[in-house]
Write a structure and sequence with these properties.
The chain is mainly α. It has helices at about 5-10, 35-70, 75-95, 100-120, and strands spanning about 15-20, 25-30. It folds into 2 domains: about 5-35, no CATH class; about 50-120. Helix 2 (about 35-70) packs antiparallel against helix 3 and helix 3 (about 75-95) runs antiparallel to helix 4 (about 100-120).
Length: about 140
């Protein structure tokens, strides 16, 4: 792909391959730009990493969270699960400038899960048990 536009550029023939549409449609590889093949190849590699890396980071974070939870490191496990969620939101947050709401969501999720874990550890207080339902 990197050398595809070189031959037409050297021979002076017209060649356009690979239409790309972002804001408008245009040929991605053209004889007018001899390095356009290398450019598109590089963009493809970067986009491929952007799509693969979050999955790898999320899987590693979840695996580490399971490991941490089995060793009773609850706060670390919570943080790792939140990281696994946030890694998918990271690039979108930079595009839309929504890092502060995303950080608030992460902090709220951490605090809420900590509160629920504390309540679960304490159990139901003796005075909070509900009365039996009246029989008809």
């Amino acid at each position: 792909m990197t050398t595809l536009p070189l031959w037409p550029a050297l021979t002076g023939s017209a060649s356009t391959v690979g239409v790309v549409c972002f804001d408008s449609c245009a040929p991605a590889i053209t004889a007018a730009q001899p390095l356009s093949g290398a450019e598109i190849w590089g963009i493809g590699e970067v986009l491929g990493l952007i799509l693969v890396v979050p999955w790898i980071v999320a899987l590693v974070a979840v695996a580490c969270a399971v490991w941490a939870r089995r060793r009773y490191h609850d706060n670390l496990a919570r943080c790792l699960v939140i990281v696994a969620f946030l890694v998918f939101q990271f690039f979108y947050a930079f595009e839309t400038y929504s890092l502060i709401p995303l950080a608030c969501l992460a902090i709220g999720a951490f605090v809420w899960s900590a509160v629920l874990a504390q309540v679960a550890r304490q159990g139901v207080p003796p005075g909070a048990q509900s009365a039996p339902a009246p029989s008809c």
